[in-house]
């Protein structure tokens, strides 16, 4: 395998520019090279700052479970070398001549996407996240045909349309996960009308998504019940996160006692699990919204849906306008992610712990203070 630091590698008789020489601006990060998922130091390059681009110094980057899946190619779509990270925050270091919304020194973030077609129906309705030509922050081909690299790196550049302003009172480290986890739960609560004061909302799973969902639902004025397989999480859910009730999903008596009491349920669990008990918790016309992505199809019982005119839906992150709305709302209501800050060289251990669910509730890499020290 050719060195990633070489300026040119050869494929047959054809010279191919290396990752380090592909663009004018030098960059450094950590990348996975194969489906072992192991990440290690990686020299590469970023494009020059275009007229509508914003360049930022990355200070923090959250670790999403998606990063683990992609690093190991568990969804079969990874392209190596892969620099993960789509919960990216930092400060602006350069702006293009046509940039209007940002200036050098601003606190900003980049979430799950960095490009779209801007001409389809979804894009015209500020739903770039559903664009058929969506360009993800890492592991996608950009408009110029080069691969996108994520936030496990010292610098990023993005079109200003895809840059989010971070409010002054939002800490960058605790705000970083909101750019994925935050918008992923905020968007369905709003879209499915589960944000009305007095509604009873169930949150399935108390992890990176679930703990933020509890905070948003409470900020909307809803009554919140956490639904979990683990009784040990009850104290945390109620005393720390402010949930009103707690249900152990394996306790048939508890579940039976809550039948028909909830207006909506946000299901954040990615493991295979039965939907029938959750549908039973819904009132007539209640809504079960799926955010987790199990690796096999779930069984969906139809009769309980018909008999109660109930809905099962899904949701995927959010558009840029809604993401800005979300983080402004979070700042106003003091909603922050509960995090464990780590150094860059701890990343592989963090990934192992994430696979076991051993994090409360989101790892965030201190890029600004620890990435440079890892650069050989």
Molecular structure report:
This protein has helices at 65-71, 121-124, 172-175, 181-191, 210-219, 234-240, 252-257, 276-281, 303-308, 320-332, 347-355, 367-374; strands spanning 8-11, 14-17, 25-32, 39-46, 53-62, 88-95, 107-110, 113-115, 135-136, 155-159, 164-165, 200-204, 223-228, 245-248, 262-267, 282-290, 311-314, 339-342, 362-366. It is α/β, with parallel strands linked by helices. The strands form five sheets. Strands 5, 6, 7, 10, 11, 18 and 19 form a seven-stranded mixed beta sheet that branches. The chain has a six-stranded parallel beta sheet with strand order 14-13-12-15-16-17. A two-stranded antiparallel sheet has the order 1-2. Helix 4 crosses helix 5 (210-219) and helix 4 crosses helix 10 (320-332). It starts with 7 loop residues before the first strand and ends with a helix.
What's the topology here?
Blueprint: E1 8-11, E2 14-17, E3 25-32, E4 39-46, E5 53-62, H1 65-71, E6 88-95, E7 107-110, E8 113-115, H2 121-124, E9 135-136, E10 155-159, E11 164-165, H3 172-175, H4 181-191, E12 200-204, H5 210-219, E13 223-228, H6 234-240, E14 245-248, H7 252-257, E15 262-267, H8 276-281, E16 282-290, H9 303-308, E17 311-314, H10 320-332, E18 339-342, H11 347-355, E19 362-366, H12 367-374
Parallel strand pairs: 12-13, 12-15, 13-14, 15-16, 16-17, 18-19
Antiparallel strand pairs: 1-2, 3-4, 5-6, 5-10, 5-19, 6-7, 7-11, 8-9
């Amino acid at each position: 395998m050719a060195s990633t630091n070489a300026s040119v590698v050869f494929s047959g008789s054809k010279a191919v520019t290396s990752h380090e020489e592909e663009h004018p601006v030098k960059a450094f990060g950590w990348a996975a090279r194969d489906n072992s998922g192991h990440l290690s130091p990686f020299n590469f390059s970023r494009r020059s700052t275009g007229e509508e681009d914003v360049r930022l110094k990355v200070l923090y980057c959250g670790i999403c479970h998606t990063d683990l899946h992609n690093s190991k190619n568990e969804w079969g779509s990874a392209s190596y070398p892969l620099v993960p990270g789509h919960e990216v925050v930092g400060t602006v270091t350069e702006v293009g001549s046509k940039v209007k919304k940002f200036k050098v020194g601003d606190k900003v973030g980049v979430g799950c996407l960095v490009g779209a077609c801007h001409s389809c129906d979804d894009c015209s309705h500020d739903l770039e996240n559903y664009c058929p030509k969506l360009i993800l922050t890492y592991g996608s081909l950009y408009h110029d045909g080069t691969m996108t690299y994520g936030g496990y790196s010292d610098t990023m550049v993005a079109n200003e349309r895809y840059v989010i302003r971070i409010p002054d009172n939002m800490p960058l480290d605790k705000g970083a996960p909101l750019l994925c986890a935050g918008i992923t739960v905020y968007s369905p609560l709003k879209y499915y009308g589960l944000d009305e004061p007095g509604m009873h909302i169930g949150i399935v799973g108390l992890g990176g998504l679930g703990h933020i969902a509890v905070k948003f639902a409470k900020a909307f004025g809803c009554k919140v019940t956490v639904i979990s397989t683990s009784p040990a999480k009850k104290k945390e859910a109620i005393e720390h996160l402010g949930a009103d009730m707690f249900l152990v999903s394996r306790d048939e008596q508890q579940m039976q006692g809550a039948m028909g009491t909830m207006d909506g349920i946000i299901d954040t669990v990615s493991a295979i699990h039965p939907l029938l008990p959750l549908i039973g918790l819904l009132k007539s016309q209640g809504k079960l919204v799926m955010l987790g992505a199990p690796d096999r199809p779930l069984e969906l019982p139809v009769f309980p849906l018909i008999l109660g005119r109930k809905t099962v839906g899904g949701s995927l992150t959010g558009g840029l306008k809604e993401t800005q709305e979300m983080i402004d709302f979070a700042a106003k209501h003091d909603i922050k992610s509960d995090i464990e800050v780590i150094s860059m060289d701890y990343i592989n251990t963090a990934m192992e712990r994430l696979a076991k669910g051993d994090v409360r509730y989101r790892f965030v890499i201190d890029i600004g203070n620890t990435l440079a020290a890892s650069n050989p």
